[in-house]
Amino acid sequence: MVETSLVELETLRKRLTGDQCAILNTIWSHFRDHTQWVPCRVLHQRFGKPAVQACLEQLGGGIIREFEDEGKHWYRLTFLGVLVTEQGEESEGLLARYLEYVRKRWKSDPSLEWVGSQEVEAALGLTVERSRLLRQLIRLSHWWGGGSGFGDQEWTVGIPTDVDDLPPEPDLRGYIRGHVLTHFPTGRPPAGIEKPRGEFWFVADPDLQRQLTLDWHEAQDVYQVRGWKSCVILCGAILEGMLLDALAREGGAPAEAAHSDIAALVEAARDRGILGSGTPPLGHPLREFRQLIHPGRQTRERVEATRDEAEAALIAVRMCLRQMAATRSGQPAQN
After folding, report:
1. Helix (H/G/I), strand (E/B), else coil: 122
2. What is the pLDDT of residues 184-202, one digit of tens each?
3. Domain 2-83, what architecture?
4. How crowded is residue 160: how many other Cβ atoms within 10 Å of its Cβ?
5. What are the two backbone dihedrals, phi and then psi, of residue 3, each rounded to the nearest 5 degrees?
């Protein structure tokens, strides 16, 4: 897995044209220097609109994207896009050192929730400039959890929600590449590169697969800004969607499945060998996620979405993702 990821990213870097490299480097340097993405008109003025749009079409939305915010149009890079710029290797090395530091701190203190720029700078020997770069990389890579504070000089972030998934290798660059190629798949990779599979590749319906992917990214984003209720609702919908899809594919879902709670769907999936024996943490708010949409029902049913419940919901989705992907790959379901 890691070796494949290493080859894929190196191949992607080598296949970029000179024009593509120049456009990607310009977008990244603008963001790095101004802490905002580059306006479309600025990039069009420098490279020409046809050249920029051709680059967007050739590389796909997994690397470069156009978006609108407050009536203005901008170009931005995904974290995968950052890793193929001229500062890509430096960036992944810096982020790997940061994750190695967080892993070490977490192992010595499992209750650790936050790290701050001052302690990270001291531990890694970072200059102010490289600390600022690391702050930007952490934000773009989504390797932060809970709340955060990203000031101009100092920053504080919650440790990654999946810190317990960090492998024991001394160098985490291979893990970073595997993670990025999975979570930021290219829309249209250059010739000779196989498109990485997304998290929900095993979902049969392509429209549902796309929606689940969007919801999963949003669930992780809202968790990072303390949106516990929104996170639980999104995770509940994700679990329901992928479990119903899998049950339908394995001979048809039970007639009452569409009206069942998450626990019933998990049990049905386990009975049919879709999931392993490991039990995802299904708290009351996750099982009754529909009640969270209606304030009246939420109050009557006493359903409360806390940080712990939101974190448990994320873990439940991750567990089901691992087990269902393993089952579809013909491997024993992973717990």
Report:
1. helix
2. 655 444 444 444 456 788 8
3. Orthogonal Bundle (1.10)
4. 21
5. -60, -40
